[in-house]
């Protein structure tokens, strides 16, 4: 590439960069927000930049006219949510005003106009529309329309956080829009073992209290439902179809272990020199492993409280294995390695009690319970 061509290319590139920095390219494409933003920034650092001055003068005039025309169009519209669009247009005009106010050299070129009163009035009208539609939805008195009402009331607060009675409306909408779920007591079918479901129920309700905090769903025990007079919409039941607990198996294995070249003594020759005596040593090593196998199928079911129709049902299968190993040996301990020595020092432990085994098994299956609850009530976020 020759020098002349390089200079032409560099010059064109410099012009392009300068145009971008002053906002001219953005202005030519009708991107007034970007154009004015770049022009103001360039004039803050270089008040005498002619291109940036031109962009600011022409850009502010054209952009203001553009947004004001859109406001008039929206006002003629029959769209219920037109005030939100009008609010956004006034917001952009006021953004121009703030940006130019922060640039002294810009103020000598244009006289920006503020529309803060108009913006506030548009916000108030937008909030009023959201409240009106929310009240209409709430009056239908269904779970779905109450949730829609809640969304409208929340949207209203984005435009006006000083609405009379809005807290009461939000509370009412949440109450009507909330699904109330009764958790039935979890039966434990065991003739020979005294087991309690308290651990599972406590763990569940701790999770469900946190889960329902920001959702249109609440969970109650049978006692709470009775004491507070709560009529449930859904009934969640957990029932063990079948389970085995602590099915024991012991596996023992004996092997002969040999180790060569082990020092077994000392030899002294006629001159009094001492030498190690090497030989092969042996030991019968018996390893033992006890396993307690627990497994079961938990029936997860959610029913409609009014029709008793099953809404969802899952068979949750899980298992848990408790293991303990120990060993013994007959013979020379020098035949064993460090791991075998350590294992031979262990003694057979008594198995955990049934309740401990049951809790360990519950921990295995519990994650599936949470997952199914999250899946079924996934569309209940506030």
TrEMBL record:
Organism lineage string: Bacteria, Pseudomonadati, Bacteroidota, Cytophagia, Cytophagales
Organism: Roseivirga misakiensis
Entry keyword set: Signal
Domain of life: Bacteria
Signal peptide positions on this chain: 1-21
Protein's name in the database: Lipoprotein
């Amino acid at each position: 590439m020759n020098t002349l061509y390089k200079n032409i290319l560099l010059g064109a590139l410099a012009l392009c960069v300068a145009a971008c920095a002053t906002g001219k390219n953005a202005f030519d494409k009708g991107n007034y927000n970007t154009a004015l933003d770049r022009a103001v920034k360039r004039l803050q650092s270089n008040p005498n930049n002619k291109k940036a001055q031109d962009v600011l003068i022409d850009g502010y005039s054209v952009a203001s006219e553009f947004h004001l025309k859109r406001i008039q169009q929206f006002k003629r519209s029959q769209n219920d949510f037109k005030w939100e669009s009008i609010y956004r247009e006034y917001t952009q005009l006021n953004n121009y005003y703030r940006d130019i106010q922060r640039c002294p050299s810009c103020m000598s070129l244009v006289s920006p106009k503020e529309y803060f009163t108009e913006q506030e009035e548009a916000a108030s009208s937008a909030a009023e529309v959201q409240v009106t539609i929310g009240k209409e939805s709430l009056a239908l008195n269904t779970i779905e329309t109450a949730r829609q009402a809640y969304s409208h009331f929340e949207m209203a607060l984005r435009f006006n956080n000083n609405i009379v009675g809005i807290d009461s409306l939000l509370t009412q909408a949440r109450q009507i829009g909330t699904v109330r779920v009764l958790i039935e007591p979890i039966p434990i079918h065991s003739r020979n073992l005294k087991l309690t479901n308290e651990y599972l129920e406590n763990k569940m309700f701790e999770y469900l209290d946190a889960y329902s905090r920001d959702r249109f769903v609440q969970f109650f025990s049978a006692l709470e439902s009775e004491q507070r007079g709560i009529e449930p919409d859904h009934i969640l039941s957990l029932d063990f179809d079948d389970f085995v607990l602590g099915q024991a198996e012991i596996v023992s294995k004996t092997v002969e272990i040999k180790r060569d070249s082990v020092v077994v003594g000392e030899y002294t020759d006629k001159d009094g020199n001492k030498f190690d005596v090497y030989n092969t040593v042996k030991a019968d090593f018996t390893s033992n492993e006890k396993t307690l196998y627990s497994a079961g199928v938990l029936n997860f079911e959610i029913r409609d409280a009014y029709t008793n129709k099953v809404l969802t049902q899952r068979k949750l299968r899980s298992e848990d294995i408790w293991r303990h190993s120990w060993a013994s040996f007959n013979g020379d301990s020098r035949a064993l390695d460090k791991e075998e020595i350590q294992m031979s020092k262990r003694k057979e432990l008594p198995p955990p009690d049934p309740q401990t085994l049951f809790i360990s098994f519950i921990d295995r299956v519990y994650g599936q319970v949470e997952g199914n609850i999250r899946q079924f009530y996934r569309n209940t976020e506030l």
